[in-house]
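Retro notes (design track)

What went well: tokenization of the new backbones is finally stable.
What didn't: we kept losing track of which sequence belonged to which structure.
Fix going forward: every design gets posted as structure first, then sequence, in one message. First example under the new rule, 151 residues:
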């Protein structure tokens, strides 16, 4: 009887965790939502662009992962190249007066985690692009984190 209670409790806890946990990857993104966010980022004040670019990087990474899983390598590759371009924009927009800098850092951290998972599951031919994208996201995430600590 004693061994049944702890194992039953463990099963209940493990089953409850996914329903309680919510993260950045819970939403499903598509090309329309990304296009809308691109338009919003281009019209946003400079103080908000860093966060919006990070949101774009995150959404594009998630969509790219789904496209790799669906074996649509061309679209997935195109998205990862766009992610690389956006990391440069994030790098240029990280400044002392940015709004939601901590949220930006958290999004980039989650995106780096998701890219690491993609790296481990990707085909050999696709790994250089994923590695390069991951390195750029890690670099920008580190810069953003340093900016958060300066405040």
């Amino acid at each position: 009887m004693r061994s049944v209670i702890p194992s039953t409790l463990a099963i209940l806890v493990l089953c409850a965790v996914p329903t309680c946990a919510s993260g950045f990857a819970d939403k499903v993104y598509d090309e329309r939502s990304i296009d809308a966010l691109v338009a919003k980022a281009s019209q946003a004040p400079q103080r908000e662009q860093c966060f919006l670019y990070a949101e774009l990087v995150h959404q594009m990474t998630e969509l790219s992962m789904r496209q790799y899983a669906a074996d649509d390598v061309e679209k997935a590759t195109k998205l990862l190249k766009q992610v690389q371009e956006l990391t440069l924009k994030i790098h240029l927009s990280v400044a002392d007066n940015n709004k939601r800098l901590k949220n930006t850092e958290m999004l980039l951290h989650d995106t780096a985690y998701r890219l690491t998972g993609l790296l481990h599951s990707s085909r050999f031919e696709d790994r250089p692009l994923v590695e390069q994208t991951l390195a750029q996201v890690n670099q920008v995430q580190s810069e953003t984190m340093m900016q958060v600590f300066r405040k």
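Added context from the reviewer: Residues 24-150 form one domain.
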